[in-house]
Amino acid sequence: MQVSVVALPDGSPPAVAAEVVQARDAHGVALLRFELPQDGTGSRWVVRLQREAVESVWLQRDEWRSPALGFFAPEAEAGALPSSFLFALPADWVGPVEVELHSLGNARRVLHPQVMREAQAMRLEQHGVAASAMIYASLFTIGLLALALFSAARDRMFLALFAFAGIALLALSAVNGHLYQVPGLRAFAFWRVQGVIALVMLLCAAWLQMLLQYAGMHQARSRWKRVVDGVSLALVVLVALCLLNVPQVARVLVQVQVVPFGLALLLGLLLLIDAVRRRTLMAWPLAALAVLTVTGVVLLELSTRGHLVDTMVVRYGYQLAIVVGVAILAVGLVGRIGEYRHQRDRELLARADTERRMQREAARSDLVSELQSRLRSLPMAELQATAFRLLIDRLMPLLPAERCIVATQGYHGQDQLVVEPAGGLDALRTQLGRRQLALKRQAANGIALQQPVTEEGQASIVAIEAVVPLQIRGPAWGALLLHRKGADGFTTEELSLASDFARQTLLHVDQAAAALQLRRSAELDALTGSFNRRTIDHWLSRSFIEGARERQPVSVLFIDLDHFKSVNDRHGHACGDHCLREVALALRGALQEGDLFGRYGGEEFIVILPGRGGAAARMVAEQLRMAVENLRPEWNGQPLRLTVSVGVATRLEHEDSPEATLERADRALYSAKAHGRNCVQVAPAVFR
Fold it and tell me: pLDDT digit string (tens) for 44-90?
C-alpha cells in the first residue's frame, strides 16, 4: 500500500493519510511514508493508532523494531484505560521516513496511523481515558442504583436494568480492550475477538429483552414479543458459537457481526416507537438516543472499513449514547416507582375502603341479628331502650364520636333517652328540653345536619354535633345526636351509615311492636282487654302443673254477672258491652300482680290465683264482688246497678290438671246463684 506524507510549513504535526495493506489472513503489513521535520523542540515523535482488536501490532524498519503491543494482553506501561497504541520513534529520524506497520489478528481492520508529537498524543490519550472512565463509572453507578431500587421496590425491572448495565459495562470494556486489564477478567482473553463479539451479541439480546419489559409487552402474546424473543434467541445462539472458539467461525463472525448488532438496534428502535405511541414514560428520549446509537455504530463501521477518519466522536460516540440511554432508562424506571406508589396507595385505599365496608356490613348484620333475637321476647316497656342501646353499641366503634344520644318522644306511646357514655342525664334532659322545639323541627325536616358547638365565653368551636332524624311517624319524633370534639365534621358516608343503622333499628322496633301487638290481640279478648278463653286455658294448665310439682295451692274463681240478660233486653247489647268492659276493669284493678284474669265466655270471667288456698281465695273473691257492687256505671244518663256471683275452688293435693277444680268452681258458682246472687260460695267437700 502507498502512503503519502506532506510536511506543513507552520511546524504542525505531519498529516498522515494511510492506505493500509492488511490481508484477510492473520498477518497484515502496511508501509508508512512520512517526513519528520527537524524543529529542535526536543519533543519526540510518535505513531498513534486507535486500539483495535488485534493480537499484536508493531513498527519495523531495517534493524529497528518497536515493542509489540497487543489488544488482549495490554502492556503494563500503557497506563490505566489506554485508548491507543503509541510507538515512540527514534530521535535521530528526520526527513523522509519509511517504516512498516505489522499487525496480527483475525479482524479485518483499516488502521489509521497518526504521526504527532508525544505531548499531543498524551493529551488525546487523556481524553480517551476520561471518556472511558466516565462511561464505566456511569454504568457501574447505574447498576448499583438499580440493585438498590430492586431491594427497595422489589420490581424485577430494576433487576433487569442491573443486569443490562453490568453486561453493557463488560461489553464496552471488552470493545475498548480494558476488560483484559482487570485481574480475574483477563480470562476473557482466551476467546480473543470471539469473546468481544459474544459480549456485544449478549448486550444486544439484553437490550431487546429490557425494552420488551420496559414497553410492557413481556406479559402479552403479541407479534412484537414473538419477534423479539426470536431475535434474542438467535443472538444467544451466536454467543454460543463464539464461545466454541473455532477460528473459522471467528472469521465469519467478524465479517457479519454488524448485521445482528444493527438489527438489534433497529428492532429496539421500533419497540421504542411503539412505546412512544402508547405513551410509555421517557420513551421519546430513549427513541432519540437509540437513533444516535445506530448512527454512531454506522459511523464506527465506516471508520473501520476505511471510509471515514477515526476520531474520538466516532470511537466513543455510540458508547456515550448507550450510557445516556441507560441513564434515561433508569430515570424512567425511577419515575415508574411513583406510579407504582400511587397504584399501591390506591390499592391500599381500596383495600382499606373494602375492609371498612366489610366491617360496617358485619356490624350492620350483627345489629340486625341482635335486634331480631333480643326484641322478640321483650315486653313493650323494654323494647325501645334495648333497641337503641344496641344501635349505639354497634355504631360508636365505626364513627369517631365521643358521645351518642338517642332521644324520642311519643314513639309507640313512650319517651326515651339513651346516652353513651352514660352520665349527666338530668342536665342532658334539661338541655334537650330547652331544645325540644328546634330538635323536633330538624327531625321533621328528615335531613341529617351538622352544627358547631361552642362553650360560653369561648369563641372557638369545641365540638361538632350531627343531628340524624329518626324516621318516626308524627306527631311522635326522634333524633340521633352525635358529638365529635374539634372542628372537623362528620363525613357524608358516616352520616349515611348512622342513618342506615337508625333506619334498621326503627324497622325492627316497629316489627317487634307489631308482633307484640299481634300476640296480645291473639291472647286478649277484644271487648274487655283481658285474656281470652284459649289463653286462660293455657295458663290454667301451666299453673296446675307448677302447683303439683312445687306442692303449692292453686285457686280458681268463676265470676258471673248477675241478671246480665235483663240488661241487654232493657238497654241493648251496646249497653251490655259497656257493662262488661266496666266490670272487667274493676275486677282487674282489684287483683294483685301475678294473678291471672280472663273472660271465659259471655258474661262469665275467671281468675286464677297461684299460691293461694281456700281462705285467701275467698277473701280475694269478696274483694272482687265488692269492687263490682261499688261500681256506678251510667248508660244514656241512667244509673246502672251491677253485681256478680263468685264460685271458688282450690286444687286438691292429688290434682295435677284443672278439670276437677273447674267443675267444683262451676258448682260453687251455681250455688251462689241459688243463694240469691251477689255472693261468694266456696266449693264444699260434697262437690269433690
Answer: 888 988 888 888 889 999 889 998 888 887 665 667 788 888 898 88
Whether pLDDT at 263 is above 90: no
Secondary structure (DSSP) of 544-555: HHHHHHHT--EE
* DSSP labels, 330-359: HHHHHHHHHHHHHHHHHHHHHHHHHHHHHH
pTM: 0.54
* pLDDT value at 341 more than 60: yes
Find where cell 295435677 sits: 656
Burial class (CB in 10 A: 0-12, 13-18, 19+), 328: middle
Longest dimension (CA), the chain: 171
Q: Which long-range contacts (CB under 8 A, 24 or more apart) does 39-45 make?
A: 39/11, 41/117, 43/117, 43/118, 43/119, 44/88, 44/89, 44/91, 44/117, 44/118, 45/88, 45/89, 45/93, 45/115, 45/116, 45/117, 45/118
Compute the residue count for the chain.
688
**Cα angle vertex 519, ends 515, 524, to 5°?**
145
Number of other residues whose CB lies within 10 A of the CB of residue 229: 15
- Give the whole-angstrom CA distance, residue 297 versus residue 155: 32
Mind listing the pLDDT tens digit for each residue in 304-320?
766 677 777 888 888 88
